[in-house]
């Protein structure tokens, strides 16, 4: 089954709201419209940039979507510092990154909490980009497939097949994030394939065939084409390389079968 690739830029805690407008506009002008038939392009800026990004995108009717980098598992109320799924949706977000390894390690988020966030995001019409991946020690011990499928099960716990069908998965080996050490295309394919087979086993073939599974971890123009050529890799979650708009446009074009 053909799945349209998704390239999502996770800006992490970079770029203020004024810089964000410049980056989105440069990305739009650098990537010819024809490529959007072959790739979905999204940016996930910090919360404080979302309104500005929305305005820039709407002003030029850009075919770029955007999302948050986290949301609360709660509906609303006394949760100082948190941002709700409803607030993101109201700002026009399509996506929300959930369970990123930086939130799992820095903020102690576990699978159970991530599963609650995924459910809340879906309830409000957001598409969660559910991140999971093994650390270096697990990889060295050869436990990466078991680790990732267990994280998948735990982070989707309690969801129906219909709900799981609306999730994007991002396989991000922790040892490849921001390190310049990209997984080989075979490494990426091995885990993305195992995740898809696990979805097939638990949620059925229609879900397994429809869900997009991205790879993330030091993705750049030089490796994106080989990564998305893998049968079970349906795009990329891009950190550092998404901050520079012309380079990110080139990366998106290559994922769409380009060159730019
Ligand atoms: O969410 C994105 C990932 O953490 C990858 O970041 P990176 O491309 O800077 O390695």
TrEMBL record:
| Pfam families xrefs | TIM
Quick one: which residues bind substrate? 10-12, 178, 218, 239-240
- EC class: isomerase
Q: Which domain of life is it from?
A: Bacteria
What are the protein's UniProt keywords? Cytoplasm, Gluconeogenesis, Glycolysis, Isomerase
GO molecular-function annotation terms?
Answer: triose-phosphate isomerase activity
Instruction: Give the pathway listed in the UniProt entry for this protein.
Output: Carbohydrate biosynthesis; gluconeogenesis; Carbohydrate degradation; glycolysis; D-glyceraldehyde 3-phosphate from glycerone phosphate: step 1/1
Q: Where in the cell is it found?
A: Cytoplasm
Q: Which PANTHER family match?
A: TRIOSEPHOSPHATE ISOMERASE
The family this protein is said to belong to: Belongs to the triosephosphate isomerase family.
What's the protein called, per UniProt?
Triosephosphate isomerase
Record the organism.
Actinomycetospora termitidis
